[in-house]
């Protein structure tokens, strides 16, 4: 069970942190704050740069905490809130399936975050390593 939770935390947490890095720094093919903010403004999310920062920092911090198994309820909350905003502002109107830009991916991340928060991060965490 502990190894399974570690794998889940690493994949989901690092992916989430990567999305935050795209928004904040333009890493991994992202557009940075200005580009992401401009896109957010174009879909009616204003002020765009501030909202891009809020989304990016939530994804980065939530993803890193989730990865390291630290403050899991808070990490999960950041992930869930960010994904709910994505559903309500972008993906919800497109239905469920990701192939139609729907909320499938967001919904799965919400389920994983809540599931890990409910059962705990497992034994392989930064806290456990530090003693």
Description:
Helix content is 74%, strand content 0%. The chain is mainly alpha-helical. The chain has helices at 2-25, 32-42, 48-68, 72-91, 104-119, 126-130.
Topology:
Blueprint: H1 2-25, H2 32-42, H3 48-68, H4 72-91, H5 104-119, H6 126-130
Helix pairs in contact: 1-2, 1-3, 2-3, 3-4, 4-5
A few lines on this structure:
With 131 residues, the protein is mainly alpha-helical. The protein has helices at residues 2-25, 32-42, 48-68, 72-91, 104-119, 126-130.
Distance between the termini: 20 Å
Rg over C-alpha atoms, rounded to the nearest angstrom: 15 Å
Percent of sequence in beta strands: under 5%
| Shape label | globular
Residues in helix, % = over 70%
- Low-confidence stretches are none
Q: Give the beta-strand count.
A: 0
What's the total helix number? 6
């Amino acid at each position: 069970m502990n190894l399974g939770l570690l794998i889940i935390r690493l994949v989901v947490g690092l992916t989430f942190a990567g999305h935050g890095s795209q928004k904040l720094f333009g890493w991994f093919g992202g557009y940075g704050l200005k580009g992401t903010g401009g896109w957010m403004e174009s879909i009616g999310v204003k002020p765009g740069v501030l909202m891009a920062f809020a989304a990016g920092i939530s994804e980065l911090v939530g993803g890193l905490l989730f990865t390291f198994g630290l403050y899991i309820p808070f990490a999960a909350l950041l992930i869930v809130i960010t994904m709910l905003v994505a559903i309500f502002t972008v993906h919800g109107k497109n239905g469920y399936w990701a192939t139609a830009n729907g909320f499938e991916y967001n919904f799965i991340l919400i389920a994983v975050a809540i599931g890990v928060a409910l059962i705990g991060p497992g034994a392989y965490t930064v806290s456990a390593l530090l003693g």
